[in-house]
Amino acid sequence: MLSSRSKKILQELxxxxxxxxxxYLANTNQVSVRTIRNDIKNLDSIxxxxxxxxxxxxxxxxxxxxxxxxxxNQFIGNFVNKSYFHPFYIPKTSxxxxxxxxxxxxxxxxxxxxxxxxxxxxxxxxxxxxxLKAVKKIFNNYEIDLKSKPSHGFKVDGSELKLRYCxxxxxxxxxxxxxKKGINVNLPxxxxxxxxxxxxxxxxxxxxxxxxxxxxxxxNLLIHIAITYKRIKCGHNVILYKADxxxxxxxxxxxxxxxxxxxxxxxxxxxxxxxxxxxxAIHILGIKTLKYTNKKIEQIMDGQILxxxxxxxxxxEEKFYLGIKEDKELILNxxxxxxxxxxxxxxxMNIRNPMLQDIKNNYPLAFDVAVVxxxxxxxxxxxxxxxxxxxxxxxxxxxxxxxxxxxxLPKKCLVxxxxxxxxxxxxxxxxxxxxxxxxxxxxxxEYYKLGQTNLDDIDFLVTSIPISKEIEVPVIExxxxxxxxxxxxxxxxxxxxxxxxxxxxxxxxxxxxKEFESKDKVLNYLNTKLLxxxxxxxxxxxxxxxxxxxxxxxxxxxxxxxHPITSKAKRTFLAVCxxxxxxxxxxxxxxLIFLLCxxxxxxxxxxxxxxxxxxxxxxxxxxxxxxxxRTYKEFMSEIQKHSDE
Length: 645
Description:
Number of strands: 13
CATH architecture of the largest domain: 3-Layer(aba) Sandwich
Structural class: alpha/beta
Number of domains: 6
Largest sheet: 5 strands, mixed
Shape: globular
Mean pLDDT: 80
Helix content: 40-55%
CATH class of the largest domain: Alpha Beta
Distance between the termini: 42 Å
Strand content: 5-15%
CATH topology of the largest domain: Mannitol-specific EII, Chain A
Radius of gyration: 30 Å
Strand order of the largest sheet: 9-12-13-11-10
């Protein structure tokens, strides 16, 4: 059996074609390079029996080679699907033990003794005591207490509603389910036949009542109904507030829940009280997606939600200047999404977003926009959206940003010459041939006519002669017979010159190989440096922490990109810090920090900078190179190399 660390090493090796250094693997696992060498040796001996092996490449690191795909895939499937309650499963790390203890406690109606738990997983009583501190913190999030009784042990204590929400999140392997396609749930307390039967009932009734929902939402509904069924059988019932109960009973989703319950009762002979039917109806409310055809947006939108969206888009435009506040598709999609999202908040439902990390990694701008929009919508509707909900909202903004890019008009230029239209036409056709649809060459004009020419819609001039008079648009001078350098000069201008990336990095704000042991120490250090240079004010650090509270800015791959919730800087720049050793940043190791500071009321196009950050976040080879660098010159050379890609 693979240890937790070996699995993580294997996942890292599987995720890239490039070799990974022992130092990188040591930092991501927060162990020594020597420990990694021993892990690699043991892992390699296991893999060689299962269709793969690990090669050590001198000066570059370790690379996974698969010789037998079928055998290797079977091996992966075997250890990925191990249940936490397999008779031979023994949790090795503190994280694994905490998960094990949570599940044990949630699924037990009796008190559990500390000695019994320690013996079961072969650890000391003091280890269990320490792990229970983390368990209590997680239970506190659900308002669940861990009650102790002398000579009896521990037992969970909380409202049935909160216990079920906690079960839905922790009793089964969420990560494992998220990696599978379609509707697929595995619960340790129900047989697959029982789950399949309940799923069939859900799908049939949703179809009859013409309710559509994505697979992940149906997964969640199945989990909650399965837990409800199990808890009722064990004599535990939900009791709702009277106001909530009356509110739900009057909704049509209650009728859908009744029909689902009638079928379950007929097959499994289990009675569902009115509160339990309402509990299921709440979850149907939380997954329901509105259907629309050719109706006007206003006909299918909730007026209050529409006003909240308008308020949020004003806030987004005020901060980001994206030009998407009139995007009808964005407004429609947000309206359709927010109705069930607000219901989820109203009835205290939890939701998971399996795409969250990918969204944060690949669409950081869209995620930041969604943070601002979510706060504005929450302020307007008196709701709160957690990180999972913000991730879903980010998808809609990401799509709107891409639509805006697609609709962007090509740059317009005018060709200027001294005399002789032959040279001008030659430049004209050369530009059309090289740039195609990305450049609209309006036409040509002689120099002496320039004063009478309307340049309002022109982005720049291309000229084969020097222009001494003041012109209100940029001028690019080229040779009469254009060469490759001339074309590259124009291309750089159209792409807003890659050289601009350098302006975001200040030599005095890049710090190499620092020894900090916590996120707080890093942020305090960088904040002090920015204050000393007069680039931010005393409210900056609080705004950074406010953003961290909404969603952590550690992206995986040893990178974090902290930034304030609202623009606080006097100019746009990146402060950078690399660390000798990785630190914990919200359960993710981090060794490379980009502190992003955007100028207040800036109208800059920051997409190029975001693209660079995405490229770094996604490529562990770039990260490995950057954290080894010790000079500004080397650092900027590496940054420039990747900004030019």
